[in-house]
Automatic annotation (TrEMBL), chains A, B, C, D:
PANTHER family, sorted: CONSERVED EXPRESSED OXIDOREDUCTASE (EUROFUNG), OXIDOREDUCTASE
Classification via Gene3D superfamilies: Dihydrodipicolinate Reductase, domain 2 (3.30.360.10), NAD(P)-binding Rossmann-like Domain (3.40.50.720)
Source species of the chain: Commensalibacter communis
MF term (GO), any: nucleotide binding
Pfam family, one: GFO_IDH_MocA
Domain Gfo/Idh/MocA-like oxidoreductase N-terminal: from-to ranges: 11-141
Name by which UniProt lists this protein: Predicted dehydrogenase (MviM)
Record-annotated Gfo/Idh/MocA-like oxidoreductase C-terminal domain positions: 155-387
Length: 389, 389, 389, 389
């Protein structure tokens, strides 16, 4: 159980974006600052520089370390002996690649929002730079820090489901069921291919589904895939506000996935079902503290977080204990902790640790973009089957 | 509210199949005998003639009206002045066509299990005979008699969902997750194309999903469809124990559907979600007495059966009243009542009534088979898009 | 599994009350007529004699066997060679005693609504008559026919809960949250002590809780009890629309119970929790097809009706089979079947069968009235503890 | 919506208890350190001084500010110019009074676990000291920071429920269903009156129910009360592991409450139902992000946290936003923030702010102890009604 004890030296941390008008910035800070593993020392929080500075001061950053943009941040911070070590990027998608490269080249670790970049080629380029520089790139797939996600991965690993047959994924909501006449800035950039990249909901929410399924089923690879996408609000074209994806895995398993932001009134967020020859698991982010374990012919079992019958690996990352609810902030805290542990290992040159350490890094980010590329290739060819590559 | 009062003369009713070793026969009798609309007068209940006769007597049929097979039933009953008027067929799929034709030609109304026949051509042939003879063919889509199914249809009709955008359907269970080594007879014929027809789960459970969606969305037609099917237990090939279907509707809506009998441990039966531009409805057969009505931006509303705020049409078919649960038997009772009303109208020559009367008849049965034909055509061509025809 | 087969000769059955304006009459008919165990041959369905006759004819009773009242019914039916054998009483509480006695004295079996009578003394008097005449008195505690109620009783009997410690019962709704200005006739008689007896909600819904708890925990007896009752709508005084009852059982267990008809908006009907030293069971009539079995320190287990892992006794009374919902009508059908089996045994003189046969009879009805007497005695003394007697 | 911005100067904060072997200490740190409102500068974390020092260092406290006990902490810290300002007490109940008094007399604000002290007299004494010194005493009723608790309070305040009639409270679990043979230290002190005070579960979990009901229903006062308590594990006597409490409020409302730690297998934690003449609210800590709002005669409404239709006061304290789960840590963060705001106001002499500011302070702690005193008085007199005083 996590109680905040740590041997890792506190990381000097900065943020790009995540200011007053954004929503995700607070999740980054909630995750990073939970146990003092990170210390927020600087940032370029806002396109409106003065508003960004005021904001930074209000959250405890020294005024002179609230910068106009990432370039100024690099210039000033790399000149300090106590300069920032790792920076989180919580800006629109189209800026991720440029900013990440700049930070890596300046010798700083990076934590970036998903979808990571626009293309796999960009991911590969960044991966090479990071490797060459000995730096970590973390990707904030923020839902995968829940203990019961680890529990699912462990149960699959131990063979409790048998051979995996079916992967059923859904992440839908209705917050974009209306048109974008009064859309916020955060909404506007998401439906413009120049700022959002080649997808809207596939990248915005679908990548969460895909990464979590990879965490639970690391041994499964997609052979081929079919993606059917559509913009129910035509101004969002050529991007999509709704998509279905069918997947054939290399072991013969079948996957299907539904993402939508026009699923009017749906408040159930995301949902995962993993079916094996012996048993199934079902989990939803809406009620993350319980997990349904269903063995054919037996009573359905509801597992609760924090209980001794869970795997040791599950309880090792529990924070609140049985009967006490964990929320998304607890999951983000685990994600940020795991990235910190990766940075610490990288600093120490402990590649053995990194080989087995689970955290959403450049590989995870790359695979998410690869999945999106395949989806778009299928969809744009008329929702046809494409070999996954 | 239904209280059993009726002006329809009691129908003399018989059954083919549905004996001691079957499960579905009891559902037919529960539906038919609920309010005395039908009187069970004869049957050929079992391939084992003596067992069938003993069974018939135990459920109140005269010994001499327990017949060896449908042919004897026709011969003897049509010779009686008080002979049977309508017969239900609860035998394996491959017998439906032959038996239905024989009954119609003998001047008897028919109520048949789904999937109705193997081909649309057979359906068309039967339809012509029925029309020529002035007889009704009912199909026991037994889940569509629940009051809240009617409520969904009425809400869609009144425009409360806006334009329909998404149709999300699922009917999965895990009772065939293991292989068929110890399969019952009822299971064996279902996985043999000679006895089951061109599909297993698509026909066995998928047609329920499709018909219910037609009841709720009568104005939507499928333009094209893609079906991906698979037998996780290879001995079931070329039939499937798992399938996904994507559908494009003529109004631009998107549909997706999942059927499986290898969804290990899943006890949630079937589930329907209808998403419109304004609101969504979600209903499941597992908890048929409540309906989730979700308007984007408003609290989720849970509607309960039997309440005054429901549509008049909904409460007109309620049997138990608010707070008192209805089950599948109540739904079957409505289906059988509606078919009786159709038979009664046909007898009276009341075609005006029949035009607007909702009941699962030959058209519903035909459309189910048509949908299966399209699914198989797509699947067998490699899970490609096919124009619906 | 029940499939309608029976060796019991069909009982000639009549009803007092239960006509067009009542709600409960249809539940009686649904229960009795399900499998042809009873045949409805006569009735006095309505205080409005003509309406009652029209109603009777519409539900299939011969016009000349639709009587003006129970006295005429007795006079005419006992004069027939094929006269009625058993009569159900679905009239207001204050009439139960008089009508029951009259039927018993005329040699007819009786099935009566709960609460049975006003006093234990009346119950004892009726019991003596029934015993002397060799007749059965059934009481329609209609919720106790659900298979999972039997499952709870069997699990307790087998010691799976350990020593019973806590009994937690609730049956509340809000249909009387407003005052009675526009109350229906059915509501008016319930809040008048002359017609309802010494209680309103305690008798109307609380007796269901108490009887079901007796079925599950037959070995527990109440030592003492405290009842606090109140009429939130003052015109209902001295009767109550809300009450809480605390109970001490003879084994040291503690019970608490809440009944209310002013629990605004509550649609969850009744709920039962039985806690033992090893495990607990929780079941609700709202979702009668599943049962929560909770062993401390293990995952919560959800049991579904119709599954092979249930007790044989449970599946013996299942009607629809796994995955197919049962509703209140199925439970009533079991109750009526069990009463028919009791009548049949009584006719055959099979007292051995009657000793172990579970059905809600005169003892159950008496114990319900006894419990009400103790509740009222406590409440009227100022909600103090009273020894149960 | 809370995003971490603050104008309050960071408070220098210390802890007594809450070390490696405790569970609640991490909840305090999660709450206090969330947004940098507090800075942990010192502590006496453990009776095992060395283990406490190692722990303190691991969570970022300077080694020389990890003290042996609260006395040393006071001595050393009050001598520093940058000494601690506020201290949290997470030690067994019997130490609360002595330590709180010592800190107040040393001029430090205090945040203390519940139940606050053993007697109302102790509470009054502490209140006087705090007032004289101009210091705040906060009490960590950690569940009352959830946004939907605020929503309930606002809806009651606006009259959306009408007159309150029924208060139904439950906090039960089964973690003490077995005996205490292998009990942890944390468990042992809780069942010993010397260390736990006059109650076990009533104080340990019942006070949470009571305080939350006060937050939602501040206008209701208890007139009289009856408490029935029992130790199912006899070694816990004279304390209780199970209790029921009946309450009469001054407006005529009725309350009932159930607390237990022998409710085997129950994982639903606490549950609240507030019933008014118009509508009801139901909320549970197990699923804190949704609230059931039930108006009689209307569909049940499920409200979700973070949605625009909630009260402004509710959304003002939301942290994660709609669709993103909040957990117990988010609630504690609000509690600690509110106490910080109280301390800040006290420092500024802003008594007007303090008059309307909701936070669990000395009054809340006192009322909890008063409620326990009344419960014990009733229970020990034989579970009789007592006037609340």
């Amino acid at each position: 159980m996590i109680n905040g004890e740590s041997k890792i030296a506190r990381l000097r941390w900065g943020m790009i974006g995540g200011g007053r008008t954004g929503q995700v910035g607070y999740k980054h800070r909630t995750g990073a600052l939970r146990d003092g593993t990170y210390q927020l020392v600087c940032g370029a929080f806002d396109l409106d520089v003065e508003r960004g500075r005021e904001f930074g001061v209000n959250i405890g950053v020294a005024s002179d370390r609230c910068y106009a943009d990432y370039k100024e941040l690099i210039a000033k911070e790399t000149a300090r002996p106590d300069g920032v070590e790792v920076v989180s990027i919580a800006t629109p998608n189209f800026t991720h690649f440029e900013i990440t490269k700049a930070f890596l080249e300046a010798g700083l670790h990076v934590i970036c929002e998903k979808p990571l970049f626009f293309t796999v080629a960009e991911c590969e380029e960044v991966r090479k730079i990071a490797e060459a520089k000995g730096l970590i790139v973390g990707v904030t797939y923020g839902f995968t820090g829940h203990p019961l996600v680890e529990q699912m991965a462990m149960m699959v690993k131990k063979g409790m489901l048998g051979d995996i047959r079916i992967v059923d994924l859904q992440y839908t909501h209705g917050f974009n069921a209306g048109d974008d006449t009064n859309a916020s800035e955060a909404q506007k950039w998401r439906t413009n291919p120049k700022t959002s990249g080649p997808t809207f909901v596939l990248g915005d929410i679908g990548t969460h589904l895909y990464y979590l399924s990879e965490v639970v089923l690391p041994h499964l690879k997609i052979d081929k895939l079919l993606c059917d996408r559509k913009a129910f609000i035509p101004t969002r074209e050529p991007l999509e506000d709704h998509a279905t994806v069918l997947m054939h895995y290399d072991n013969g398993a079948r996957g299907h996935l539904w993402v939508s932001s026009v699923d009017a009134g749906n408040m159930r967020s995301h949902r995962y079902r993993f079916v094996g020859s012996k048993a199934s698991l079902e989990w939803t982010d809406s009620f993350p503290n319980q997990l349904s374990y269903e063995v054919q012919g037996e009573p359905v079992k509801i597992l609760h977080h924090g209980m001794p019958y869970l795997e040791d690996e599950t309880n090792a990352i529990d924070r609140m204990g049985a009967l006490h609810t964990e929320g998304l902030g607890d999951s983000w805290a685990n994600i940020y902790l795991w990235i910190a542990q990766a940075i610490d290992a990288k600093k120490r040159g402990d590649e053995a640790f990194l080989k087995t350490h689970r955290y959403p890094g450049i590989e995870a980010g790359t695979e998410g973009v690869r999945w999106l590329e395949n989806c778009v290739r299928s969809a744009d060819a008329g929702a046809v089957w494409v070999d996954f590559k």
